[in-house]
Write a structure and sequence with these properties.
By secondary structure, the protein is mostly helical. The protein contains 14 helices and 5 strands. The strands form 2 sheets. It has a 3-stranded parallel beta sheet. The protein has a two-stranded parallel ribbon with strand order 4-5. It starts with 24 loop residues before the first strand and ends in a 9-residue tail after the last helix.
């Protein structure tokens, strides 16, 4: 473990400043409200696993099931998604011995910390959260509708729970997409307020954004997202009638293209097929595919080439994924091991937090 903290009663100045010179403690979470798709793999799973393979950085990876229930109120989906996402991370190469891999709900100190942070977080800060503002704006465009209709306290307070996820482990670096930068800034604000009001216990985290990370286009031309129903499943849907490999092939063949005929030159930079292909191919293969587009490759052939390229990378992971999905006991043991590791940190951090706000024993008892 990197020793980036001082004693239980003191926090160094470096903990509450920027983290450019600190040993990294990286934290990544994924919400358990859907089945992993190709966009999740390219944008989060693959780079996260690669980033720690040759690194001494501490890493925390968690299944954000409490975040999942903010918008998803189907217990079966939350449960099955948790299993599928855990199996996906392990199958794709995450080493639970190397990192701390846990389920958010197995660390009860996190929601308790969220409450403590809520009590010093300004409501005005939450009013500026993008998700809340978007929901209010949608209501304002309707007639005779309260601006807060359908908005739960879960949605409103989501950034505080996310801050608790991060601050509980004094994460220094949090990989996010650009749409999540605001939440990291809010976590910094919340940490700073607590540190100033009570005691400097929390590190100010830094957002890590990879501008070169591709945001994959979905089947319909919009950003690949489970919200749009336009995703390419990584290992197939649950309880499939056809094999996961055939499911992936079928989805790729549904990618929307224009009406250009075979042998007509095509612009690869306007093609979702080419965009996704680039996320899996070498520079030489990308150049060759670009030349094939210029020569007029047929859309069916382009889609087949895309499937072959993706399948070559994903196929070796499928057997392990299916093995884990058929053996939830192994997954549960892995998650409980991770929860034990996570709670070694969270118990200490929460105890220091409680004492800082005045919640501590009145006297020592024999």
């Amino acid at each position: 473990m990197n020793n980036n903290r001082t004693s239980d009663n003191q926090t160094s100045d470096s903990q509450i400043s920027d983290n450019s010179t600190q040993a990294k403690r990286i934290l990544t979470g994924i919400t358990t409200s859907g089945i992993p798709h190709l966009g999740n793999y390219v944008g989060a799973i693959r780079p996260a696993i690669q980033s720690i393979q040759n690194s001494n950085d501490e890493a925390f990876f968690f299944l954000a099931d409490y975040h999942g229930i903010i918008k998803c109120h189907d217990p079966a989906i939350i449960h099955e998604s948790t299993k599928a996402i855990a199996a996906t991370w392990i199958a794709c190469g995450l080493d639970p011995e190397r990192v701390t891999f846990y389920r958010q709900s197995d660390v009860p100190e996190i929601p308790e910390l969220a409450w403590v942070l809520n009590c010093s977080c300004a409501k005005g800060l939450m009013n500026r959260a993008h998700a809340y503002k978007a929901s209010v704006d949608a209501n304002m465009n309707k007639e005779d509708v309260d601006p807060d209709q359908g908005i739960t306290m879960g949605l409103f307070g989501y950034p505080v729970l996310m801050a608790a996820d991060i601050l509980m482990f004094n994460a220094t670096h949090v990989p996010v997409g650009r749409d999540q930068i605001q939440h990291i800034e809010m976590a910094r604000d919340i940490a700073g307020t607590f540190n100033h009001k009570y005691k400097p216990l929390f590190t100010l985290p830094s957002a890590v954004v990879d501008d070169e990370m591709p945001l994959l286009t979905g089947l319909d031309g919009r950003k690949m997202s489970k919200s749009y129903g336009n995703t390419i499943p990584l290992f197939g849907e649950l309880n499939p009638q056809v094999s996961p490999e055939k499911q992936m092939h079928k989805a790729i063949m549904k990618i929307v293209t224009n009406s250009q005929l075979p042998e007509e030159p095509k612009n690869p930079d306007d093609s979702a097929i080419f965009e996704i292909y680039k996320a899996f191919a070498t520079p030489e293969e990308i150049a060759d595919m670009r030349a094939q587009f210029a020569a007029g490759i047929g859309w069916g052939d382009a889609k087949q080439a895309l499937f072959d390229k993706i399948n070559n990378e994903i196929a070796p992971f499928r057997a392990r994924y299916e093995e884990l999905m058929a053996n939830p006991k192994e997954l549960e043991e892995i998650l409980q091991m991770g929860a034990d590791k996570a709670r070694r940190h969270s118990r200490k951090q929460l105890d220091k937090t409680r004492r800082a706000i005045g919640i501590r024993p009145l006297a020592k008892l024999k």
